[in-house]
Amino acid sequence: MSNIPSELKYTKSHEWVSDNENGTITVGITDHAQELLGDLVFVELPEAGKALDAEEACAVVESVKAASDIYAPVAGEVTEVNEALEDQPELINSDPYGEGWLFKMKAADPDSLESLLSADDYAAEAEE
Amino acid sequence: MLIFEHSTPGRRATAQAPATTAEIDLPAQFLRRSDTGLPEVSEMQAVRHYTRLSQKNFSIDTHFYPLGSCTMKYNPRACNSLAMLPGLLQRHPLAPESHSQGFLQMMFELQEMLKAVTGMAGVSLTPMAGAQGEFAGIAMIRAYHDDRGDAARTEILVPDAAHGTNPATAIMCGYKVKEIPTDEQGDVDLAALKAAVGPQTAGLMLTNPSTLGVFERNIMEIGRIVHEAGGLLYYDGANLNAILGKVRPGDMGFDVIHMNLHKTFSTPHGGGGPGSGAVGVAERLMPYRPVPVIARDGGRYRWLTEDDLPKTMGRLSAFGGNAGVLIRAYIYMRMLGASGMPRVAEFATLNANYLEQRLRDAGFEAAFPDRRASHEFIITLKKQAKELKVTAMDFAKRLLDYGYHAPTTYFPLLVPECLLIEPTETESKEEIDGFIEAMIAIQREAETDPDTVRSAPHTMPNRRFDEVTAARTPDLKWQAGE
Lengths: 128, 482
Hints:
The complex is a heterodimer of chains A (128) and B (482).
Chain A: E1 9-10, E2 15-19, E3 24-29, H1 31-37, E4 40-44, E5 51-52, E6 57-63, E7 67-71, E8 76-81, H2 84-87, H3 91-94, E9 103-107, H4 119-127
Antiparallel strand pairs in A: 1-2, 2-3, 3-9, 4-6, 5-8, 6-7, 8-9
Chain B: H1 43-55, H2 77-83, H3 86-89, H4 101-118, E1 122-124, H5 130-147, E2 155-159, H6 165-172, E3 176-180, H7 190-196, E4 201-207, H8 219-228, E5 232-237, E6 256-259, H9 261-264, E7 279-281, E8 293-297, E9 300-304, H10 323-361, E10 365-366, E11 377-380, H11 382-388, H12 392-401, E12 408-409, E13 418-421, H13 429-448, H14 450-454, H15 467-472
Parallel strand pairs in B: 2-3, 2-4, 4-5, 5-6
Antiparallel strand pairs in B: 1-7, 6-7, 8-9, 10-11, 11-13, 12-13
Helix pairs in contact in B: 2-10, 4-10, 5-6, 10-13
């Protein structure tokens, strides 16, 4: 079974969300998602400053098998993107919850994080 | 080995070399000073090099090629030999209409046959490939809404079972894409569709049968929902082979369709072209067809251009499309005749269902076990991947050793570890049985000797490619001295 850290929040579309407790959140894709995709070869990230709606397609990760959209877990504004991924998309495979993070954003409504899945809920989703 | 690596300075194929008697009168500053760097080989070396390369091909002329979604059917030799008649081969694309009546008649009749078999009001043959056909289709939808001043329609709906080209086409035409989920039986989720349509809906792009290899049973209801919201219905012709002569997109309510003549109408493809993405339209889109279109005026044939169709979405090629491909498709259709078309769909479907059932009997898991397959079907190897650590890719590579082209792998994305298998109507039962035996043998190997499967292919000129490195750090250029 893939690694699903209990302290993070999740989406059905396999993003993880970490509350940085300074008004920003960090977004990445789960271990399960990187496993399904296989070796990543290309990542397209949003621009810092871009305003996103919840569930808006805002990034693309591409493996030799498939290209997959990444969705904004909540509404807000992109504050920072992980530029290291441009040259090293494999960081998502090797460290999906650490060095393989995708982008940070400021949530428009801090309470919106409540609507995301817990680790247990996501584990149940991923099991299906 | 590349042809450059056979090069020896000064070697020539003299019989093929251009005559050098003509005076070169280009201004001196335009003459090249460096060597051209072209390979210097004899005629025989060139012949052997390319013949050897051609012998490495895995093609429909040499192997069973069940590449799902691609309709790799046999290309009858008659289509080729008739298309190579000197009168067709040597016709200049700029030849006047009066010198091209035979060619124009064939193209007019091709338009008419495509209209008849799809139930559309008009056809344009100019798109040069499926992608251009899609582009033309959505551009016509856009032209239609714009013409009516209906500028609020900014969104194209695309079911998640669609080809990846559909959302790409919608974006190319300036639309936003909204994805519609599929239910567990492979049909479009009607509740989600109803919730998604509105005054912003420009249209819906649908493949039927879908990429999941099943017929969309609610198509009439889907058409009603989209039309009532003011949107138009686009038919992706990827899987037209399954329904040819049996049911028509026009009768299902589609406003615009593209057809892949290189698939359904059996012109050679698989090496990147050339293709033909002819489009068909319902009455309301007639003014927007890409030009030129061929018309018959009092027993004469002529091109319709911007003068005749001022609202056209435009031109897609310098001339009237890929003439050689269109001629081959025309001959294929004339050989089939109206009575042959449904036989294509019947045998394509029969072959797919026979193959699916026998694979299921052998223990393989179908992705949609409750549905009858159309002309293709999906099996999922997720159990093999989990329990034996042998993936769909491993099966695909091992099939090459058994003399079969691999099915489509990892597409559609909705089904994990999938193989999308399309035998087409032109394969015999014996050929299909051979493929089934190979799949069973590979399953046995996966259980007893998994490393053999994981490291396949073993008999091909090249072993397994490192696709990851190739994608991450592509090395695309040959350089002298390497």
